[in-house]
Amino acid sequence: MSQAYPAALLLPSDAFDTNQHQVMGRRVAGRALAQGIASSLRPNEQLRVLAGHRGELPVLRDLLQPLLPVGAELWLGCGLGSEQLKQLGCLHLPDPGLAHWCQLRAGLPPSSFSITGVTHTLCSKAVVQGLEALVTAPLECWDALICTSTAAKEVAERAISRQLEVLERRFGQQLMQPAGPQLPIIPLAIDPESFQDSSQGLDRSRRRQLARQRLGINTDDYVVLFLGRLSFHSKAHPLPLYKALATLSQSAPVLLLECGHLFNAAIETAYNDLAAQFPTLRVKRLGGQTPATEDEKILALWAADVFCSPADNLQETFGLSLLEAMAAELPIIASDWNGYRDLVDHGVTGLLIPTSDQLKGQTLTDELERQYRIGLVDYDSMIYQRSQCVVVDHQALETALKHLHDQPEQRQKMGSAGQDRLQRQFSWTSVAQQYRRLWEELNDLRQAAAQASQKAWPTSDYGSLFGHYSTHIASTTSFRITTHNTSPEFLLKPMQKGIINRWCNHSSCHRLVQLLLDWRDRQDIISEETWHQAANALGIQPDHQRALLIALEKLGVIEGMKA
């Protein structure tokens, strides 16, 4: 019998499917996580993955099944019933919203299962509110918000600290730091082999030559690659890079290679207009309003001499494209900005360019934040305005680009050092082990707590809030059906079919109707035990059986026999 992997993954298509949804860092990271975990399974180990709905199951199977080691298994399902959740041990979520998702444990002992999530973009109103809610959410030390970088952990810690201050002032009492969740740092990762082109076995020099032939790039060009979202409002303003390369191109053959996605015609026009302001600057673009293909991305990585990402946006939290550059043995020039600091070893694998920001040292809420929080300014406008107050040091960027142009041997050393660092710290061989250790430790903590008697956290559940509305408690324990009752076939009519199908699928619903008709013909009194046995045989979840029985009485299909 297979042994369960220490965590189950919740993966709705929005968290991983870049074919059905826009290519975004969190979706690329979600897909990579599932693939990385699947490929790291031990023989005779089973990975459980929960989809958003049944239509997503074939996509997940095609994505993960080919990566399983010999002897490992994949279990795919959907639904988040309490009985199913208690079997998972740990449920890993594709976002940082632990305060939201911990409601899955409402009414259950806290040790029923662990909950973990992961940080991506942290600057949205919803995410910040979610981080603040960690203070009061019913979370435990066997739950964890996995932070992908040191900068991300600091954001979470500061949000928690500020919310504690708010509550202390509100209630006039000093509060303790909550026991959970834990905030471990585990980086994102990639599979280095997936960024190799078809020229296997060739060194970087030969790959560079072949890629340039396919892309029509001169052998002698100093090619600087920007890879990622081409967005001046949500990624990186291109002006510092354009300006620095235009200056350098006055004395050397320089080419800026842009590879990525332009979201619309207006943004594409803006990029083209800016490039036209620098007559000496040559730009070659792969992708555009139609995103660059994976093949184009790999060619770009191998054709380049240097990778450059002068990110200046609050949306940027980690930087998967930097890992891709490391896989291709490229030296990196990047802004000294949040998660980038964890990825680039300054002077060894690349160079970090100083940044300055209006928010640095600002401790009071400003007008922009107030307007964004109450909805007078939208998210895109907020991050755009914030990015306009982030300065990437123009002179330092120009100096770094010229330095690596003049030092081809250092480029090679940095590229090799980056590839080595990727294998040690940011490949799935390393990162999957960190996830495994974390989930095993959380399960140990949870199982130790389960030995003690635990009560569910009190919640503002609807029974507590609204249970006084009715006269009596719905307490049907046995029932009967006669010809005077509403026909069971009414359950298949449009007025009821939608809600009944939420509790039992289409096939089960038809079988339920037939069973009720048989009971009506016999006019027996049906006990509660008989009902549950029949409902189990129909595949109706335990959580839904009582609600369905009460609904049958509501509709007059059955006559309840009160205890």
Would you kindly provide a written description of the structure presented here, covering whatever features stand out?
There is one protein chain. By secondary structure, this protein is of the alpha/beta class. The chain has 3 domains: 3-188 and 433-450, Rossmann fold; 192-426, Glycogen Phosphorylase B (Rossmann fold); 470-562, no CATH class. It contains 22 helices and 18 strands. The strands form 4 sheets. Strands 1, 2, 3, 4, 5, 6 and 7 form a 7-stranded parallel beta sheet that branches. The longest helix is centred in the last third of the chain and has 23 residues, at 428-450.
Compact summary:
The chain has helices spanning 25-39, 57-64, 82-85, 98-101, 125-132, 150-171, 204-215, 239-248, 265-276, 294-303, 320-327, 340-343, 367-373, 379-387, 394-406, 408-426, 428-450, 462-466, 494-503, 506-522, 528-537, 542-554; strands spanning 3-4, 8-10, 45-51, 73-78, 90-92, 114-118, 144-146, 222-229, 254-261, 283-288, 306-309, 332-335, 350-353, 355-357, 390-392, 476-480, 525-527, 559-562.
Distance between the termini: 44 Å
Mean pLDDT: 91
What structural category do the secondary elements indicate?
alpha/beta
Beta-strand proportion? 5-15%
The largest β sheet comes out as:
7 strands, parallel
CATH superfamily of the largest domain: Glycogen Phosphorylase B
What is the CATH C level class of the largest domain, in words? Alpha Beta
Number of helices: 22
Radius of gyration: 29 Å
What's the helix and strand layout?
Elements: E1 3-4, E2 8-10, H1 25-39, E3 45-51, H2 57-64, E4 73-78, H3 82-85, E5 90-92, H4 98-101, E6 114-118, H5 125-132, E7 144-146, H6 150-171, H7 204-215, E8 222-229, H8 239-248, E9 254-261, H9 265-276, E10 283-288, H10 294-303, E11 306-309, H11 320-327, E12 332-335, H12 340-343, E13 350-353, E14 355-357, H13 367-373, H14 379-387, E15 390-392, H15 394-406, H16 408-426, H17 428-450, H18 462-466, E16 476-480, H19 494-503, H20 506-522, E17 525-527, H21 528-537, H22 542-554, E18 559-562
Parallel strand pairs: 1-3, 2-3, 2-5, 3-4, 5-6, 6-7, 8-9, 8-11, 9-10, 11-12, 12-13
Antiparallel strand pairs: 14-15, 16-17, 16-18
Helix pairs in contact: 7-10, 8-15, 11-16, 16-17
